[in-house]
Amino acid sequence: MLNVNNLHVHYGAIHALKGVSFNLNEGEIVALIGSNGAGKSTLLKTISGLLQATEGEVSYLEETISDQPAQDIVRKGIIHIPEGRKIFAKMTVVENLEMGAYLINDRRLIAERMDQMFTRFPVLRDRKKQLGGTLSGGEQQMLTMARGLMLDPKLMLLDEPSMGLAPVLVEQVFDIIEEINQQGTSILLVEQNAQMALSIANRAYVLETGRIVLEGAADDVLRDPKVVKAYLGG
What is the Cα–Cα distance from 21 to 4, expressed in whole angstroms? Predict the structure, then answer.
């Protein structure tokens, strides 16, 4: 479904990604773990068209997309849920969801999708007239995910969905990620909480200083001594 081949990305003189290659198959949850500064967010931004690669290729459903603008990549069914939530703080919950449906011209379909989001995230129904900036961190994360799901994406790029959340909310968010996947959306999950990410993923890659240094089935990566030492406190 998604293939990344020999991807290099620079920020000026900084070589952020150094020949990254990996793939994601339809229906999978693939976890990408690594420390701060490893290049995880850079990789997602490059896939979604927010950054341009200096070398290499990204292909989606056998079509090269690394030369396409972000808005065209969204139209192909790839949604990027950014780190730090990035909701529209001065808009209501309903208005945020409407922004997520900006490519849909059918008002009836928008209403149907919004009802689906309120069913999946009941707290948002209770808060639908509230401004996004007044929501708790967990509620904002749910709003961000719901906004992305308004377009019924085939592939979701999730960047640090557990960041800043209380443990009970982290579990709730990861349950929702699993549910989204079970309903047909493939997921590339960037996450510092390696334990949680690997517990729901099919496969995983470990990124260090712009290079993939380990890959395999999520269970195998979870048991790898280097991963246990570096990311799981072992």
Answer: 5
